[in-house]
Amino acid sequence: RMFCAHPQTKTYFPHFDLSKGSDQIRGHGKKVAGALGTAVKNIDNLSQALSELSNLHAYNLRVDPPHFALQILAQSLQVVLAVHMGKEYSPEVHAAVDKFLSAVAAVLSEKYR
Amino acid sequence: MVHWTAEEKQLITSIWAKVNVEECGAEALARLLIVYPWTQRFFDNFGNLSSPTAIIGNPKVRAHGKKVLTSFGEAIKNLDNIKATYSKLSELHCEKLHVDPENFRLLGDILIIVLSAHLTKDFGPACQATWQKLVGVVAHALAYKYH
Fold first, then answer.
1. How many structural domains is chain B composed of?
2. pLDDT band at residue A11, thresholds of 50, 70 and 90?
3. Nearest beta carbon to residue A5 from set B30, B113, B128
4. Which of B24, B47, B59, B138 has its C-alpha lying 20 to 30 A from B3's C-alpha?
5. Residue B70 forms contact with A (CB below 8 Å)
6. Where does the Globin domain lie (chain A) (predicted)?
7. Is B2 or B33 the better-scoring residue by pLDDT?
């Protein structure tokens, strides 16, 4: 969904098959979701739990500008949650998830400069 | 001028036909005030905004949400000339209301989540992409007359 709505994000994946439903998209999406699962389990210590990923995003991936790009992904994630959960994606749940994803983005941006 | 493909126009109007403007408008504004509490600064005279429950039930929030989304409908009726459609509203938001245009982006993203939650499977990737483009264009038009 993110690649569809925000084509500029595809520039970070020139080495991927970005056709709909590709194995690479599925595999990478699963990886990202897995990392978020780890973040949820370590919600009171995001800095430490995501330390490796933070280094990766800062020094290797350099997704730019950091906060903005990660906001785009956060939006797509929330849309998917809302599509799956419908009414259960209540305002309170929405607020908590948005806050969480912002915190994750902040940690991943920590080492940029 | 923004270019809309026939498919994009179709996706916009078909989704809009399914939207209960009063309900979705109220919900979108309520969520803005709940998820980004600092936006409450623009609504000092709205009364009780002390909790999500209070905000959702607040009649002024509901009424204003409906007003905002009704205005959105004007953009949809004038897809080929959104800037002109929102010219006066842009001046208003700058000169009278003093709203940072970043808030238009926030509300746009929230509207998309509200649509997703209501329409679920009917709000597929192409829909999302088209509507993200639409809210972006509306936000841009509302910021256009700022000075």
1. 1
2. confident
3. B128
4. B24
5. no
6. 1-113
7. B33
CATH number at residue B133: 1.10.490.10
Report field, pTM of the whole predicted structure over 0.80: yes
Which residues form the domain of B129? 6-143
B121 occurs within a structural domain: yes
Rounded to whole angstroms, how far apart are CA atoms B118 and B19? 9
The per-residue pLDDT for range B113-145, each reduced to its tens digit, is 999 999 999 999 999 999 999 999 999 999 998
Q: Does residue B109 fall inside a structural domain?
A: yes
Contact B121 A83 (CB under 8 A): yes
All domains of chain A in start order, with CATH: 24-112 (1.10.490.10)
Query: Is pLDDT at A63 greater than 80 in this prediction?
Result: no
Cβ contact (<8 Å) for A83 and B123? yes
